[in-house]
Amino acid sequence: MSKGKFGVHGGQYIPETLMNAIIELETAYEFYKKDKDFQDELTALLNDYAGRPSRLYFAKKMTADLGGAKIYLKREDLNHTGSHKINNVLGQALLAKRMGKTRLIAETGAGQHGVATATAAALMGFECEIFMGKEDTDRQALNVYRMKLLGAKVNVVTSGTMTLKDAVNDTMREWTKRVEDTHYVLGSVMGPHPFPEIVRDFQSVISKEARAQILEKEGQLPNAIIACVGGGSNAMGAFYNFIPDQDVRLIGCEAAGKGVDTALHAATIAKGSLGIFHGMKSYFCQDEYGQIAPVYSISAGLDYPGIGPEHANLFDTKRAEYVPITDDEAVNAFEYLSRTEGIIPAIESAHAVAYAMVLAPTMTKDEIIIINLSGRGDKDVAAIARYKGEDIHE
Amino acid sequence: MSKISEIFKNNKAFIAFLTAGDPTLEKTAEFILTMEKAGADLVEIGIPFSDPIAEGPVIEKANLRALSVGTTTDKIFDMVKRVRTKTQMPLVFLTYMNPVFVYGVEKFFKNCRETGINGIIIPDLPYEEKNEVLGVATAYDVDVITLIAPTSKDRIQTLAKDATGFIYLVSSMGVTGVRSEIKTDINAIIADIKQVSKTPVAVGFGISTPVQAKEISKTADGVIVGSAIVRIIAEHGENAGDVLFKYVKSLKDAIS
């Protein structure tokens, strides 16, 4: 009966009002994932519109500076719209088109998923509404304007903690109001089945490419893949095709905010417990009565109290490791990559860079790390400047 | 027949909802008894949740108010125990899956039986996931109320077939909240349900006026009102008793 399980995690914990829409989506996806026309059209969009395949770049200066493992960057930041989010959005938008939907709705944290959804909506002629917490519309004002420029309506969410969790709540509420013509473009490997599977499949292009690219460049598999984890879509995409390669370490970096020993973090694996929320059974930051905790991170994209069910299972089965990275470590890595390689990463991706800076020096020179550089940092520049005490406003 | 089903035997049932701990648990206990005196046949007690995704702003805010004054599941069980000494009316919880799951399913339903809770409504627990609680709830004589939505269509009869206590027919798309007009063809859905189930059908979501309640009760076995009651409590706070009594009585009279 219960579908979409990853170990004990996953499932479909949603109101009855949405069940038929979820079943319709599952049926459509089962069909189109095997449909050659659909896959060809998606590949053409990913290549010609989004700029895939993304480059696997050898970070020579960073490697020399850290003095250990060779570091490669999977450049998802070079995709159209500036992050990995476009991979999933083009897939879901194309699916929604085939299903006859005319309207897309989506939640967004940092605004990257919202921008990608607004972009796909403009391209394919959908009406589009984005839900974004007030806290995030303030710290990511530039992305709000980008979405409006692309023709989307941005709804500012003022309930709860006014961040990503609340944006998901309000997008789900909106979907129950209007489900016939509307597809909910969920932005991460979370929510009710089939979303964790759909988003993972559309993001798995990252590891499919990276695996082939590293074999071509180095003739061997990497020793570790490092990616940041909020809900976990870029990490899932970066891990997926390496899961059968047991010798490749899969490392997810969670947002530790001001530190996992403070109340101000979003480190779900380090500090969370098993729960059922946002359509799925997984790990959540919550109290003893199951009230979801108000989480915190400098990174709006990682500021989420849960994690996708497949990650929860990769953790349970010890196939993947999850490490907490603080705001300070992420900001340091943000500056480090900018100065060392001339690449300004998204503050989300900087969490992965931060852990590579710890890990690489402990490894030998013939070992290899791939960092999934999930997005570019233009959107974060003003906020980081403020964090560093400079009075810059957009 | 479950204790819940009995309230539908000789009359159209009026079902009232309030959020536990809004404004205080003492007042919740008082308001439950006030509403019973005014004619309510069953009260749904909302266990507040931080992220109630099926609720509109009125009930969502009540959830957050209740949590902000320190309401917990344990304190709610204590309140129910006290109320149970003063009434035989069926009492039903409405909450989300996470508070039940994290509390511990076994401990939760054991406490339900011990304190006198007769049923539970969990909006984010669809038919496909019902085994998360059904076996344990049944073992402790707690009915897990089945929800049917305007979008249920070909699922209606599957859902209705196994229903116990009453069937909660969601009148409208979207979240809870007062609506001026209910567009769903309630009668057609009720007819579908009645083909396969003898379980009484109560209609909720959006109902607030005696006129709406009367119209719905022509075909439904009961009427559920939530947001309108929660709004009265939000407006009048600790002094809501008199207004609540008059309001609930006006609705019960309309369907009698």
TrEMBL record, chain A:
Cleavable signal peptide: none
Limits of the Tryptophan synthase beta chain-like PALP domain: 51-375
Catalytic activity: (1S,2R)-1-C-(indol-3-yl)glycerol 3-phosphate + L-serine = D-glyceraldehyde 3-phosphate + L-tryptophan + H2O
Cofactor dependence: pyridoxal 5'-phosphate
Xref: PROSITE patterns: TRP_SYNTHASE_BETA
Keywords on record: Amino-acid biosynthesis, Aromatic amino acid biosynthesis, Isomerase, Lyase, Pyridoxal phosphate, Tryptophan biosynthesis
Catalytic activity, EC: 4.2.1.20
EC top class named in words: lyase
GO molecular function, one term: tryptophan synthase activity
Pathway membership: Amino-acid biosynthesis; L-tryptophan biosynthesis; L-tryptophan from chorismate: step 5/5
SUPFAM superfamilies: Tryptophan synthase beta subunit-like PLP-dependent enzymes (SSF53686)
Example of a GO cellular component annotation carried by this entry: cytoplasm
A Pfam family this chain is assigned to: PALP
Family classification: Belongs to the TrpB family.
Subunit (UniProt): Tetramer of two alpha and two beta chains.
Function: The beta subunit is responsible for the synthesis of L-tryptophan from indole and L-serine.
Name recorded for this polypeptide: Tryptophan synthase beta chain
Organism: Acetobacterium bakii
Automatic annotation (TrEMBL), chain B:
Annotated coiled-coil segments of the chain: none
Record's catalysed reaction(s): (1S,2R)-1-C-(indol-3-yl)glycerol 3-phosphate + L-serine = D-glyceraldehyde 3-phosphate + L-tryptophan + H2O
Recorded metabolic or biological pathway in which this protein acts: Amino-acid biosynthesis; L-tryptophan biosynthesis; L-tryptophan from chorismate: step 5/5
Keywords, comma-separated and alphabetical: Amino-acid biosynthesis, Aromatic amino acid biosynthesis, Lyase, Tryptophan biosynthesis
Gene Ontology cellular component terms for the protein in this record: cytosol
Pfam families: Trp_syntA
EC top class named in words: lyase
SUPFAM superfamilies associated with the record: Ribulose-phoshate binding barrel
Catalytic-site annotation from UniProt: E44 (proton acceptor), E55 (proton acceptor)
Enzyme Commission code(s) on record: 4.2.1.20
Gene Ontology molecular function: any one: tryptophan synthase activity
NCBIfam families noted in UniProt: trpA (TIGR00262)
Function per UniProt: The alpha subunit is responsible for the aldol cleavage of indoleglycerol phosphate to indole and glyceraldehyde 3-phosphate.
Family label: Belongs to the TrpA family.
Assembly behavior: Tetramer of two alpha and two beta chains.
Protein name according to UniProt: Tryptophan synthase alpha chain
